[in-house]
Amino acid sequence: MNKILTLLLNLELWILQDTFAARHSLKYFIIATSGVKNFPEFVGAAEVDDVRLGYWDSDIQSPELKQEWMRQLVRDIPEQLDWYKRKCSGNQLVFRKHLEALSQRLNQSGGSHVLQRLNGCDLDEESGEVVGYNQYGYDGEDFIALDLQTLMWTAPSSQAFTTKLIWDNDIDRLQYNKRYYIKKCPEWLKMYVNYGRSVLQRKELPSMALLQKTPTSLVCCQATGFYPKLAMLFWRRDGQELYEHVEHGEILPNHDGTFQMSVTLNVSESPLAQWAEYECVFQLSGVEEQLVIKLDKDAIQTNWIPPSNFPAGAVIGGAVGVLLVLVAAVAAGCYTRRRNGEFRAVNTGVELALPEC
Predict the structure, then answer these.
(1) What phi and psi, each to the nearest 5 degrees, are found at residue 337?
(2) Mean pLDDT for back-to-back runs of 10 residues, the chain (357 residues)
(3) What single-letter DSSP state applies at residue 191?
(4) Per-residue pLDDT at 256
(5) Total structural domains in the chain?
(6) Quick check: is 10 in a domain?
(7) Same-domain status, 144 and 57
(8) Is 356 inside a domain boundary?
């Protein structure tokens, strides 16, 4: 049975590899906040194929281009940068008004509130198929989304019903959205892919490590620094992939445009003598070579210190480290969505859990 499941997973990776080689995406992220301390009132970002193109926030008030090929593009086509400046500056005012209107409409006074938008398009280069989307979240929940087939807004939240009625009657805006997402967005996406093809279609293999918090914790296999995002990481024993006592983490972005992922294994019931039978395997889309790291107690990295050897000074250093991780988590969390498409709540004072590894 395990052989069949492994074959199915490998087949899935092969199919996805073939599919995604011709598919590209252009995504825009906007976050507007009110009452959130130590965070910009407005943040905007753009990505092509999960690679950050640029960033803007209400503190810097200027686009920051993140890719050299994007900087070359705006040197060749200066109006691109002008368009982003106008859009970011204009959206900053528009989203502030949206937040004010929502607070009044929902009888909310004070407190912290967050309005998010994810919009953009996906393009299949082979078939020419275009899928556009424009959806909003409010305080971490799905709020309203545009159906480009019917040119009507859908409101999964009852709080958005009044907004739906108003936006459904804004015919000019609906027609603009249709033209933009079906024509302009894919045209720009093609242009970006042509400029950045060498970066967007590169292959980078990760570094791998085994991590463990304490001698009795789950063993975590981490792969970091890979690109593209399409990859598999799994544990196997004696050549057979494991499905029990295994937990897969999400694929997360790194600051340099690469990705990381992890998978944990519970070996508490396996004698140390059997650990050599286990290995962690990484497979990147488009690369035949597999990276393999064997489960070896001496190779496991840990910051665990026996209580008798624990220095008092480490408490302060550890606390500072946790604070830095939390700050990074808040910043990164602003741009993420759950796998099922639902908006993830932006942290506004909610306690954050640190990852297992």
Answers:
(1) -130, 155
(2) 44 47 90 94 96 94 94 97 95 95 89 96 93 96 96 94 96 96 97 94 95 91 95 95 94 92 93 93 93 94 64 42 38 39 43 39
(3) H
(4) 87
(5) 2
(6) no
(7) yes
(8) no
**Residues 234/280, Cβ–Cβ less than 8 Å:** yes
| Co-location of 72 and 99 in the same domain | yes
CATH code of 285's domain: 2.60.40.10
- Select from 170, 200, 230 the last residue of a domain: 200
* Parent domain of 97: 16-200
Q: Is the backbone of residue 238 left (phi > 0), alpha (psi -120 to 50) or beta?
A: left
Distance CA 268, CA 217 (A): 8
Q: What is the pTM of this model?
A: 0.73
The per-residue pLDDT for 302 is: 85
Helix-strand-coil percent breakdown of the chain, rounded to 5? 35, 30, 30
The rounded distance, in Å, linking the Cα atoms of 103 and 107 is: 6
- Distances in Å between the Cα of 91 and the Cα atoms of 16, 99, 184, 274, 328 are 35, 12, 18, 59, 25
Nearest to 44 by CA among 12, 105, 89, 8: 89
Residue 348 lies in a domain: no
**The residue type at 203:** K
CA pair distance 4, 9, nearest whole angstrom: 9
Local structure of residue 274 (DSSP, 8 states): G
User: How many CB atoms are located within 10 Å of the residue 290 CB?
Assistant: 11
